[in-house]
Amino acid sequence: MLKGFTAPRSPHGAAALVPSPPWHFAGDVLAVEFWNDPEISVQILPTGVELDRKHLGHSVALFTDYQFTAQNNEYLDPARYQCRGFSVLLDAIWKGTRIAWCPYCYVDNDAALMRGWIQGYPRKFAAVHQTRTFAASSLASAPLAHDSRFSACMSAHGRLLVQARVTLRERAERLVGLLDRRIVGRRHFPRLSAGMHDRPAVDELVRCVLDHLVVTNIWIGEGDLKFPEAYGEELEVLGPLKVGRGYRFSFSYSVSNIEVLADLTA
């Protein structure tokens, strides 16, 4: 009998691209809040999801640098299970509940790409980089301190898609107005069978469930964000009309479940 949580399934299951959950994550985040044109961003929402009229156009750009493990010390395989990513989250409403809709998401790792598709994140391949800090003091290590500067960028197929910079101003005990909404995505797997290209095998609106979420070493400051126009992408249409606060923090959480909000195949 073939084994494995994902393809490729094999006699022992070790060849699977992603191991079975629960999955555990830990890493660093650089984030910038911004506002885009609601007349444009509303066009990227799926059926049943609306923009939050109390926070029209409010969005967050997230750069992540993290590592992963399941049950077999996968973090000891850093080439396979370290990842950097970028996501956009829009303030939205689902049946009266505040949510963060994820229209675009990028990663630099095939296992992370597959995990995202399973969870409902619309991930694509990209190169993502952000300034790091280290325990050893050095001019090459950006300190977590007042006036310290951090930068991040994301590119795909040789084209720059996002550029961000954050200047830290003060330490905070908790995030305010950031990541305080459950993230919602869409699991969409089309059919290739003739006559069924517009009838996906799976089309679900799902809410991501994060267990044991920890956010620490929070710094808040000034943000700067740009979405350059790039051929083959549409990220720039969500580009900022106004940029707000910047954030730098560390996180950890676990994943073993998603909540299906709606079956859109119906």
Short description, anyone?
By secondary structure, the chain is mainly beta. Helices cover about 5% and strands about 50% of the residues.
Rg over CA atoms, rounded to whole Å, is: 19 Å
Query: Overall 3D geometry?
Result: globular
- Corresponding CATH superfamily: Acetoacetate decarboxylase-like
Count every beta strand, where a strand is a DSSP E run of 2 or more residues. Answer: 14
N-to-C series of helices and strands: EHEEHEEHEEEEEEEEE
Judging by the overall fold, what is the CATH architecture? Beta Barrel
What structural class should be given to the helix and strand makeup?
mainly beta
Question: Biggest β-sheet, characterized?
Answer: 14 strands, mixed
* Poorly predicted sequence stretches spanning 5 or more consecutive residues: none
Q: What's the CATH class, please?
A: Mainly Beta
**CATH overall fold name:** Acetoacetate decarboxylase-like
Estimate the mean pLDDT confidence: 96
Q: Please, could you describe this protein's structure?
A:
This protein is mainly β. The chain has one domain (24-133, 142-263): Acetoacetate decarboxylase-like. It is built from three helices and 14 strands. The protein has helices spanning 38-41, 78-81, 110-119, and strands at 23-35, 49-51, 58-69, 82-94, 97-107, 123-125, 127-130, 149-156, 159-172, 182-189, 202-208, 211-226, 242-255, 258-263. Strands 1, 2, 3, 4, 5, 6, 7, 8, 9, 10, 11, 12, 13 and 14 form a 14-stranded mixed β-sheet that branches. The longest helix has 10 residues, at 110-119. The model has no long low-confidence stretch (mean pLDDT 96).
